[in-house]
Design goal:
- The complex is a heterodimer of chains A (301) and B (214).
- By secondary structure, chain A is an alpha+beta fold.
- Helices cover 61% and strands 8% of the residues of chain A.
- Chain A has eight helices and four strands, in the order αβαβαβαβαααα.
- A four-stranded antiparallel β-sheet of chain A has the order 2-3-1-4.
- The two termini of chain A are 40 Å apart.
- Chain B is α/β, with parallel strands linked by helices.
- Chain B has one domain: P-loop containing nucleotide triphosphate hydrolases (Rossmann fold, 3-Layer(aba) Sandwich).
- Chain B is 35% helix and 15% strand.
- Chain B has a six-stranded mixed β-sheet with strand order 4-5-6-1-7-8, with helices on both faces.
- Chain B is globular.
- Classes of the chains: A alpha+beta (301), B alpha/beta (214).
- The interface between A and B is medium-sized, with 30 and 37 residues.
Chain lengths: 301, 214
């Protein structure tokens, strides 16, 4: 091996980066992209939590039905409710049919009538709550109605279908809004990267031209920008994702097992979603930088 | 060739550089020497006419094939056009690096060449810290390091002393002997005369040839 005269000064030469670093601009870009990544991660965590909340409520409602019992003239409401519970308890798939206690029935109407109107002799409708077996197919409202009819009880079955539909729709909308926000933020990040690529190409026009005239292939020059911006975006994604995970963890810790609020129950597993942030940020940045750089470099002779 | 809507800088120029030849290109300032070189090293496209390189019409070379064609041409730019953010060594090694060669395969050659042009002690220096003559020598080293088939030099001895100028001339002649076609644009009449090489003279956009071996 030939000995270089200044081997003592530079014993192991390694090719330097062909694009100069601009620390001030890099910090600014990482900050802006990091903030966008933070909001994107928060949006994704909210989407996961909203899905979980809707799923939980739906499961609760799907597993039960409510029956409003109408007593006949020659029977007391309590007796009619007991007979209804007995008839419903025999239906396949029903784990338990229980008469709703009078106090609970009063509590249900109290918000509308007020405590003063709840006289002891106030005739309250009697209700039976039916709990389905978890591992068996749930009986339909028609089957429950048929059981009541067979038992000679007049009653109206509510299988919560209407409420379940509303909750599923609300949950889907919340999830859709959060995912939409995350996508918009990703597009905003792509626009920021495209702008940074454009600015980088303009600032380094002289260097690009020298590389170009020295025989650099377009893909080599594009790769320089693509890799550099992907690297910065990955850093921004890591920082933004970490910040979002921290905020979500605080929400989880402050709210106990339900999270900060039962409406948006954050689970520890939701925090894993931020792990994908650096990769997605890098991929979005690489793509945006590649498209922008290719378009601009294509204009060189 | 013209820039934008300005009058044509070069008109009706037709010449051929035979492989392995050495020519000087002279002419007053503004005669179009740099523009002519730009046409040859594919930095500009002619507004009319054609440029043929290595037997291929440059206008018909696809964008994909252009880098390979450019790598066969070494260029010493008049204004050096060094990469200020990387070292002398990185600048000199640039064409080899862009050609996809491994650093270990050319490290010794680059070091030897830099030492030969008098930059042996400045490997790690950044171009902004170099004197004008050192920059020029570095630009020459970068142009010749890949042993190009065609070397175009725009005033390669403009900022260096006579002794170094002659040394650079010897390097160019040596490169020419190894098979590289050389075209040097220069104001240095003494250097041109001393070389004894044929001269293209460019004046008011027109080209004429004088000298031996034309």
């Amino acid at each position: 091996m030939r000995k270089r005269p200044d081997d003592a000064a530079a014993p192991r030469w390694r090719p330097a980066p062909l694009l100069p670093r601009d620390p001030a601009q890099d910090v600014l870009l990482v900050f802006v992209a990091g903030v966008l990544c933070f909001f994107a991660c928060i949006a994704v965590i909210c989407a996961l939590a909203a899905g979980r909340a809707a799923g939980g409520w739906t499961a609760q409602l799907k597993d039960s039905a409510t029956v409003l019992v109408r007593p006949t003239a020659d029977e007391s409401p309590d007796a009619a409710a007991e007979r209804a519970a007995a008839a419903l308890g025999g239906v396949r798939g029903v784990a338990e049919a229980r008469v709703l206690e009078k106090e609970k029935a009063q509590a249900l109407v109290e918000p509308w009538l007020g405590p003063a109107a709840l006289a002891p002799d106030l005739p309250l409708p009697r209700m039976v709550t039916v709990q389905f077996e978890a591992r068996a197919p749930a009986p339909t409202a028609a089957q429950l109605s048929a059981a009541l009819k067979a038992g000679g009880v007049d009653g109206v079955v509510d299988d919560h279908r209407r409420w379940i539909g509303d909750i599923v729709r609300a949950g889907d909308m919340a999830r859709g809004a959060a995912v939409g926000a995350a996508v918009l933020i990703a597009l905003a990040a792509a626009a920021v990267i495209a702008f940074a690529t454009r600015a980088g190409l303009a600032a380094r026009h002289e260097i690009i031209e020298v590389l170009h005239l020295s025989g650099a292939e377009d893909r080599t020059i594009i790769g320089l920008f693509q890799n550099r911006l992907a690297e910065l975006a990955a850093l921004a994604g890591a920082l933004g994702g970490a910040a979002a995970a921290l905020v979500a963890a605080m929400a989880r810790l402050m709210g106990g097992t339900d999270g900060l609020t039962p409406v948006l129950p954050v689970a520890w597993s939701d925090l894993l979603a931020v792990l994908a942030c650096p990769l997605i940020a890098a991929a979005v940045a690489a793509l945006a930088a590649r498209i922008t750089a290719a378009r601009l470099i294509g204009g060189l002779p | 060739m013209r820039y934008g809507r300005a009058p044509e800088v070069l008109q009706d120029i037709s010449f051929e550089l035979t492989p392995g030849s050495f020519h000087f290109l002279t002419g007053p300032s503004g005669a179009g020497k740099s523009s002519l070189l730009k046409l040859i090293y594919l930095a500009r496209r002619p507004s009319r006419g054609r440029v043929s390189l290595f037997g291929r019409d440059a206008l018909e070379v696809s964008r994909r094939d252009m880098p390979a064609l450019r790598r066969r041409i070494g260029v010493v730019f008049q204004e050096y056009r060094l990469l200020d953010h990387v070292s002398v060594f990185d600048n000199a090694a640039l064409p080899l690096r862009l050609a996809g060669r491994k650093a270990s395969s050319y490290q010794g050659d680059v070091a030897e060449l830099l030492t030969w042009v008098g930059l042996g002690r400045r490997f790690n220096a950044l171009p902004p810290t170099l004197a004008g003559g050192e920059k020029q020598r570095l630009a020459i080293a970068r142009a010749v390091v890949g042993r190009p088939d065609l070397l175009l030099a725009d005033e390669p001895t403009g900022n260096i002393d006579q002794q170094m100028g002659l040394r650079i001339l010897r390097l160019l002649i040596e490169l020419n002997r190894l098979g590289t076609t050389v075209l040097v644009a220069s104001h240095d009449q003494e250097l041109v005369a001393r070389s004894g090489m044929p001269v293209f003279e460019l004046d008011q956009g027109r080209l004429s040839l004088r000298g031996a071996g034309a």
